[in-house]
Design brief:
- The complex is a heterodimer of chains A (458) and B (437).
- With 458 residues, chain A is an all-alpha fold.
- In chain A, 72% of the residues lie in helices and 0% in strands.
- In chain A, helix 1 (7-23) runs antiparallel to helix 2 (29-44).
- The two termini of chain A are 26 Å apart.
- Chain B has a five-stranded parallel beta sheet, with helices on both faces.
- The longest helix of chain B is centred in the middle third of the chain and has 24 residues, at 177-200.
- Helices cover 47% and strands 5% of the residues of chain B.
- Chain B has helices at 2-6, 8-27, 46-53, 60-63, 81-84, 91-96, 104-114, 116-130, 138-149, 154-164, 167-170, 177-200, 203-208, 221-225, 236-241, 263-271, 302-308, 328-345, 361-366, 372-383, 397-400, 423-431; strands at 257-261, 279-282, 313-317, 350-354, 391-394.
- Chain B is mostly helical and 437 residues long.
- Classes of the chains: A mainly alpha (458), B mainly alpha (437).
- Chains A and B meet through helix 1, helix 8 and helix 19 of A and helix 2, helix 3 and helix 16 of B.
Chain lengths: 458, 437
């Protein structure tokens, strides 16, 4: 049920929750959302919800301690010091919690990693730092802090919203238009996830099924592009669903993706990809380390730290560290060497980005380093040697089967297409198209789930 | 109206959702009766979509026609018990009845000629079924010595060697205890048949090949609703088929071969050089139900392919996609029909019906449907069609499985398909299983 693109969520949890939410008087809607979020999380994680509750209580009380030291127009030094110590204590506990569970996941079992831990811990750290920096203007009520940490649209996979962006304690505006806008975003996100990402996932699965040693070089590249599109629509789709629900509930839209594939450099790409995570690392790691206004050596160090942490945050395998390391290296090189050049020459940046990013996603995708080596060998056969039982014609079959998803995906990567939608989203054709997208998604979900003897085709 | 104007997408989805639910409700007892859904986790309207996937469309509520892929199965097993009585496992028929048709009616008739031993076996079986599958084979195991006593003692030793030649007969670790007992009993029966066939075969028998075997029992209702493929034949057919002495051939042998199969054969086509010799009617998710109708790129439908070229060999491996659909009886009904049609269309061709390739232990242990217990049961059924004259049963599991009879994990990524590079094992297996006259 914790997946937004499941029939259970779409036809059981969400409708019931929406009805209850909107029949509840405005004053109590936060409580209703909190209640719904706890139930949502408990269904997915009946045991580890205790971790979420404990971490919520701890962070709330640490925040309260800081607020109590907040008295007076100008804070004296002892107040500042103790507030700072308070924040550091809270962040250390939060980071330790994340590290312990990540360690358990790596060395014992993946099942020991509580759902959404990486996301809600990052929100908690952000909450502590924002409290210290007085970016949270009013003393938060417990229900608001708890809601911020646990709200069901965001608890599993973000976006990592800031406390202030939630407008907690302020009057939210509710209107049918806003509900419709949010709902449309949700439907678009659902379509991206089910109709594009899930279909393209089959391509990647097919490549693994064949075995990387037996794929042709064109297919290896095709697979890398397919995986890049799949990951994008999986996560952008998810983020649109999450933020769509938030808009339906009366919150502001949180942007998490801003057409990253239209970027002209890796650093720009990561300002537009998973924006809330990038901003989090910028504000809570990179800038505190000194940011870019420092010596070159220090800048390199800061970037390296940020990107290694980003790699570790994303997963448990060594490949994620390599992935983060490679990105960090490329971004450092852009800053020091060729970044400006990429921006100046027309299309050079785009070509560079579209060639390099899929390769980095391949590192991201393949957790087994030996297999990763084989895949790169197929991408660049002159360094990797010959494959085994390679079918030279395989690209014909796969490009035929997947071209429709590639075309749709590539179109959606173009910012102008999204602008066109924004401009015409009330046009009857668009309205009907969205209805079609929704039911087509439900068709795929119905045929692949809940029906035990039809969920796979061999 | 204001609502529709302000929330057109939401309003349209609500109204279409209500409409779809009404359609689903309307067809629930008729066209959607076979569509399963979990009321806790999915909306009723999902049956409309799963229906579309099975080519059942909403307007058929009014026209009344539907094309159920899954037959009604064993729901009425009790009713059929009496009819089942005396239905022999066909062993006597080997001697008595050399007709090529060998359908269940034949089994019944031969049961009469077969004498008391058989009748007892079948009725013992039937009683077991009444116990709701608790231990349906008790009757059968008891009856085994009786049956055996009528046959020559050599039969047993033959059974032993037959079982060795076929790892499938021993493996089935995922099958329930009762199935294993069933298989064991079947093996003993089969041994005697094999011995009979080998030692007493008359000239006319040699000419027509083995008689088709009839099932030892029926699928139970429990097996049907739990999507368990019942092992209703035991491994008599497998053991009997294994008595054929296959020969090693070279690649030119496949110049007049046609392969019919699902994604497993697609792998064989794409990752070996067999396609340089043979033609392939293969497609991912192909089932026996559509094998003769499906249009394959390059060759057209199977009947068209057979018309356009004289094939000397037809290889068919189908059955994994059908797991969980209907009963073993339903599956075998269609499988038999397809094999007979192939025989009719290409009377001179050798037909190789291939055992379904198993899945890995990891998959088998965690999947209620796609597991090796179900695969073995269906393979036991398929093998009963082999006559070792025109129709041959071969089982590639011999070369791709580990000691426990599961697909070797190193050979697969998804636990179901061979890696591209491992398809050569299948090719080599086929090269070692030629039939040369």
């Amino acid at each position: 049920m914790v997946s937004f693109s499941s029939l259970e969520f779409l036809f059981r949890f969400l409708p019931v929750f929406l009805i209850l939410y909107f029949v509840t008087p405005v004053k109590y809607r936060d409580i209703m959302l909190l209640l719904g979020s706890v139930i949502f999380y408990a269904v997915g994680e009946p045991v580890f919800i205790l971790v979420l509750i404990a971490a919520t209580l701890f962070n709330y009380f640490m925040g309260v301690r800081m607020w109590k030291l907040n008295e007076g127009f100008q804070l004296s030094d002892w107040q500042k010091k103790r507030r700072r110590r308070c924040m550091i204590e809270a962040v250390i506990v939060d980071v330790a919690l994340l590290a312990v569970f990540k360690g358990l996941a790596v060395f014992v079992s993946n099942e020991l990693l509580p759902l959404g831990l990486s996301f809600y811990i990052f929100k908690m750290i952000s909450y502590q730092v924002d409290t210290l920096h007085k970016e949270i203007w009013d003393k938060p009520k417990f229900q608001h802090v708890a809601l911020y940490f646990t709200m069901f649209p965001q608890v599993v996979s973000g976006p990592i919203m800031r406390y202030n962006e939630g407008g907690f304690g302020l009057q939210r505006t509710y209107s049918l238009e806003q509900f419709e806008d949010g709902f449309k975003l949700f439907v678009i996100g659902l379509g991206m996830k089910v109709l594009l990402a899930d279909r393209l996932a089959i391509l990647w699965n097919d490549l693994q099924m064949i075995g990387f040693q037996s794929i042709s070089t064109p297919l290896a590249w095709f697979g890398a592009f397919g995986y890049s599109l799949r990951l994008y629509f999986d996560f952008w789709g998810y983020s649109l669903m999450a933020s769509g629900i938030m808009v339906m509930l009366g919150f502001d839209f949180i942007e998490n993706f801003n057409h990253p594939y239209a970027s002209k450099s890796i650093s720009e790409f990561y300002r537009r990809w998973h924006v809330t995570l990038g901003n989090w690392f910028r504000d809570y790691v990179y800038i505190p380390l000194g940011g870019s206004r420092c010596r070159k050596g220090r800048l390199v160090f800061n970037l390296a730290v940020v990107w290694l942490l980003t790699g570790i945050w994303h997963g448990n395998g060594l490949n994620y560290v390599i992935w983060g390391g490679v990105l960090g290296l490329l971004i450092i090189l852009e800053k020091l060497l060729y970044g400006k050049f990429l921006q100046k020459v027309p299309f050079l940046g785009n070509v560079y980005l579209l060639a390099v990013i899929p390769l980095t996603w391949v590192i991201f995708a393949i957790t087994d380093l030996k297999q990763l080596g084989i895949y790169f060998g197929r991408l660049f056969p002159f360094i990797g040697g010959a494959g085994i039982a390679v079918n030279g014609q395989d690209i014909m079959k796969y490009s035929r089967n997947y071209s429709v998803y590639f075309i749709a995906g590539i179109l959606l990567c173009i910012p102008a297409v999204w602008e066109f939608y924004e401009k015409h989203k009330k046009h009857p054709v668009i309205v009907l198209a969205l209805v079609g997208v929704f039911w087509l998604s439900i068709y795929f979900l119905s045929c692949s789930a809940g029906n035990p003897f039809m969920y796979l085709n061999f | 109206m204001k609502f529709l104007k302000k929330c057109p997408v939401f309003a349209l989805l609500l109204s279409t959702g209500v409409l779809f639910t009404i359609i689903a409700l309307g067809g629930k007892k008729t066209i959607y009766a076979q569509q399963e859904y979990d009321p806790l986790g999915a909306p009723l309207l999902s049956v409309m979509f799963t229906g579309v996937k099975d080519d059942i469309y909403p307007w058929q509520i009014f026209t009344g026609e539907s094309t159920p892929v899954m037959a009604s199965g064993a729901g009425n097993s009790e009713k059929d018990l009496n009819e089942n009585e005396g239905e022999s496992s066909g062993e006597e028929a080997v001697n008595e009845n050399v007709s090529d048709e060998g359908d269940m009616a034949d089994g019944n008739e031969s049961g009469e000629t077969g004498g008391d031993g058989n009748g007892t076996a079948a009725s013992g079986n039937g009683e077991g079924q009444e116990d709701a599958g608790e231990n349906p084979e008790t009757g059968d195991t008891e009856s085994v010595p009786e049956t055996d006593s009528e046959n020559s003692p050599e039969g047993n030793s033959e059974a032993g060697s037959g079982a060795e030649g076929n790892p499938g007969g021993e493996s089935g670790e995922d099958q329930s205890g009762e199935d294993r007992e069933g298989a064991g009993a079947g093996a003993q029966n089969a041994g005697s048949i094999g011995a009979d066939a080998l030692h007493k075969a008359s000239d006319s028998l040699k000419d027509a090949g083995f008689e088709r075997l009839a099932p030892l029992r029926e699928s139970t209702h429990e097996e049907y609703i739990n999507h368990i493929s019942a092992d209703i034949y035991g491994d008599a057919g497998v053991i009997r088929a294994a008595t054929y002495a296959f020969e090693t051939v070279d690649e030119s042998y496949f110049d007049d071969a046609l392969f019919i199969g699902d994604s497993r054969f697609v792998g064989l086509k794409e990752y070996t050089d067999l396609a340089d010799h043979a033609d392939f009617c293969c497609e991912t998710s192909l089932t026996i139900y559509k094998a003769l109708e499906e249009r394959f790129s390059g060759v057209g439908t199977v009947p068209e392919a057979l018309e356009n070229k004289d094939y000397g060999k037809i290889y068919m491996m189908l059955g994994i996609n059908e797991l969980g659909r209907g009963t073993t009886e339903d599956f075998m009904g269609k499988y038999t029909e397809v094999v007979d049609t192939l025989r009719e269309l290409e009377p001179d061709a050798k037909i190789f019906i291939m055992g379904i390739m198993r899945v890995s232990g990891k998959k088998s242990g965690s999947d209620a449907i796609f597991n090796n217990g179900n695969i073995n049961a269906r393979n036991n059924a398929i093998a009963t069609l082999a006559d070792n004259k025109h129709i041959f049963y071969i089982d590639v599991n011999e070369v791709v499985c580990d000691e426990e009879g599961n697909l070797e994990e190193e050979y697969t990524f998804d636990q179901i398909h061979l890696l591209g590079a491992q398809n050569v094992l299948v090719k080599e297996f086929l090269l070692g299983h030629g039939v040369v006259e």
